[in-house]
């Protein structure tokens, strides 16, 4: 998809509990990441373009997951590396969406394919110790971490912890927020 002049694709790297397929709901017979890895579909055919947003996606379907083949092995495979390389030659931005860093090793494995890693943390939900442990895990594999993003921020509650700059920006960009 073209956002701000850049072509982009999101790859659902959560092979155990994929979430993007449920959000975008492609046709049931649309090929996905598993099909490309197994060689039963081409990468071009597996890319799904969401009709509502124009977003390009490479989804994974856990109904196709084979217990005999672990998700970590798939993500560490040359086949997966080749898929990422091919997408990188086609799109300016390839977003590799992984499962939580602390739950399984997948995020650490996928990070070796990334030029940059953005660590997302659910605001006021993820314990500080878990955030620190997740960052240590990524640091242990020398993941190219460039920043942390807070998600699900409750603006009203966040304001209680606010510093002066937060109030300044909130006023300056009031039109961007809905109450």
Description of the structure:
By secondary structure, this protein is of the alpha/beta class. Strand 1 and strand 2 (6-12) form a beta hairpin. Strands 1, 2, 3, 4 and 5 form a five-stranded mixed sheet that branches. A two-stranded parallel ribbon has the order 6-7. It has helices at residues 20-24, 33-38, 43-46, 71-75, 78-90, 106-111, 128-140, 155-160, 164-172; strands spanning 2-3, 6-12, 48-49, 56-58, 93-97, 117-122, 145-151. The longest helix has 13 residues, at 78-90. The protein contains nine helices and seven strands; from the N terminus they run ββαααββααβαβαβαα.
| Whole-number mean pLDDT | 83
Could you spell the SSE succession in H and E letters?
Answer: EEHHHEEHHEHEHEHH
What percent of the residues sit in helical stretches (DSSP H or I)?
Answer: 25-40%
State the distance separating the first and last CA atoms: 30 Å
Short note summarizing the structure:
The chain is α/β, with parallel strands linked by helices and 179 residues long.
Question: Which terms would index this structure?
Answer:
two-stranded parallel ribbon; 179 residues; single chain; alpha/beta; 9 helices; five-stranded mixed sheet
Write the layout of secondary structure elements.
Elements: E1 2-3, E2 6-12, H1 20-24, H2 33-38, H3 43-46, E3 48-49, E4 56-58, H4 71-75, H5 78-90, E5 93-97, H6 106-111, E6 117-122, H7 128-140, E7 145-151, H8 155-160, H9 164-172
Parallel strand pairs: 2-4, 2-5, 6-7
Antiparallel strand pairs: 1-2, 3-4
